[in-house]
Write a structure and sequence with these properties.
Low-confidence stretches: 1-48, 50-58
Order of helices and strands: HHHEEHHEEEHEHHEHHH
Strand content: 5-15%
Number of strands: 7
Mean pLDDT: 80
Distance between the termini: 13 Å
Shape: globular
Radius of gyration: 20 Å
Number of helices: 11
Structural class: alpha+beta
Helix content: 25-40%
């Protein structure tokens, strides 16, 4: 588990989403049979940046908690195909899930869809649900400005079943300097969780991209070689997040130096506990 600096990102970006109209107004219906989150649809290609439509007079925030009020009003971003059949289907028999589609990111657009392979036939409707996939990408592109996601070159749609891994960012399989956003289409209908997770994943992109962490080609080319990993970590004089050695003035190294140096020995000791029960108890005490 890596120290990460996303709490303030959640507050700031979610507040922006509320203010500029990602959520419906007070008079809007919050439950419809076919939600249409049109307020975060990107402008035509002549306009480089997706825009968020202004909302009406903002609602009062119960107990002054505008962030929670915003989350509670978010409509579904996308309704994946055949929702009822999905819930009645058997669980996905794969710890890592199945990749259903890969897109190339060009600015604010996703292009050149490539079908996934080797997934169960009952997942086919979700693979072909391009409308839902597009809506999820449009939402992310509306939340995060294009200059803050320039290292993203691929958008992957996958699923490992409901309520498991919702989203992640990873280095692409062919370029250690380029990154991919992966989203589980099964969990995309829960707008609150999706929003929180997308902002969290942006925090990883912000703190781990090549301008912050120098990627290790040896680790990238040998992802399962623990000796190489340990050797790269040993020679790194700054915080080592895994992909490579962080730069001295990187966000994650500054965060580590400020908040983690005194508590890291306790963290390492907890990480070595083998009993799940004892580990969870020690982790609760630590936090």
């Amino acid at each position: 588990m890596k120290p990460i600096i996303t709490f303030m990102l959640v507050v700031l970006v979610t507040a922006t989403a509320c203010r500029f109209g990602i959520v419906p107004t007070a008079t809007a219906s919050l439950t419809t049979s076919t939600p249409e989150p049109a307020t975060f649809t990107p402008e035509p290609s002549s306009t480089p940046e997706p825009t968020l439509a202004p909302s009406a007079t903002p609602d009062a925030c119960p107990n002054g908690d505008c962030i929670t009020a915003c989350f509670l009003k978010l409509p579904p971003v996308a309704n994946p195909a055949d929702l009822k059949a999905r819930r009645a289907s058997r669980p996905i028999d794969s710890e890592d899930g199945f990749r259903l589609m890969t897109y190339t990111i060009q600015g604010n657009k996703i292009e050149n869809p490539v079908d996934g392979s080797n997934f169960p036939a009952w997942l086919k409707p979700f693979q072909q649900d391009h409308e839902s996939q597009q809506k999820v990408w449009d939402y992310f592109a509306a939340l995060i400005p294009s200059d803050q996601r320039k290292y993203l070159t691929e958008f992957h749609v996958f699923s490992d079943g409901e309520d498991n891994t919702l989203a992640m960012v990873t280095q692409t399989e062919t370029d250690m300097n380029a990154w991919a956003l992966e989203v589980d289409i099964f969990d995309a209908a829960n707008a609150q969780d999706l929003t929180d997770t997308l902002i969290h994943e942006y925090g990883h992109l912000l703190s781990l991209n090549p301008s912050q962490v120098i990627p290790s080609k040896r680790i990238f080319d040998n992802p399962d070689n623990y000796d190489i990993y340990d050797g790269e970590a040993y020679v790194c004089e700054n915080y080592f997040p895994g992909e490579g050695c962080s730069l001295p003035d990187s966000y994650i190294n500054q965060f580590y130096e400020r908040f983690w140096t005194k508590i890291e020995p306790e963290w390492i000791a907890i990480d070595e506990i083998e009993s799940d029960y004892d580990y969870e108890a020690a982790l609760d005490r630590f936090f």
